[in-house]
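Appendix C reproduces, verbatim, an entry submitted by the partner laboratory led by Prof. M.T., so that reviewers can inspect both the input and the predicted structure.
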Amino acid sequence: CFYSLPISSQEGRPPALKKMKVFSLVVLMALCSLTMAQSLPLVPTLYKLQNFTFAAPYSCGGSYQRSALFLSSESQLVNSPELLLNGACGSTPYFQVATSGSDLGYIEIYGLNTPLSSLSAQDLQNPKNLFSINANVQVGHTYGITGAKQEFRYILGVTVNSMNPNGSLDITYAVYLYEVAKISAQSAGFNWLTKPQ
């Protein structure tokens, strides 16, 4: 939480107004502390079935607060969700893993009647299944998500429980792998557009 109380504008104001601004600042600090106390863990718990509700697709009245699944405090800190529900109003919503230009990821589509409790991390990397960078969402279908961002990498399984058109989407998910990494060394000169000579 960020807040400021301009000092210059305080001079010459009645004491009651100054007290009201200070009270507002104290309330804001308390709310920020409460929000931070409910923050995500550094890394999520593995192999635990959990439920989550997306409020709306990102491109249909959504935002990262309403349309994104953040699994760790690291992803929240860099504002890079592990999974985004996207899609224009009136279209089929889809899952998106890569939310910025440097993200790498793919989604493995399992289809109907594949419970997460029957899948291992190895199953989620099966080359016999259909892979995509985005996947249209269908109720009852299960998806394997593998993501690699600069700060972390992960494997996630998701089953879609219910969906309201242009609205909320309920999922059950489990995290199979989660690693936070810091770059200790890298080759110089990387550029997404450079070609070898």
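The beta strands are 50-54, 68-69, 83-86, 94-96, 104-112, 130-132, 134-136, 141-148, 152-163, 169-180. Additional entries are available on request from the coordinating office.
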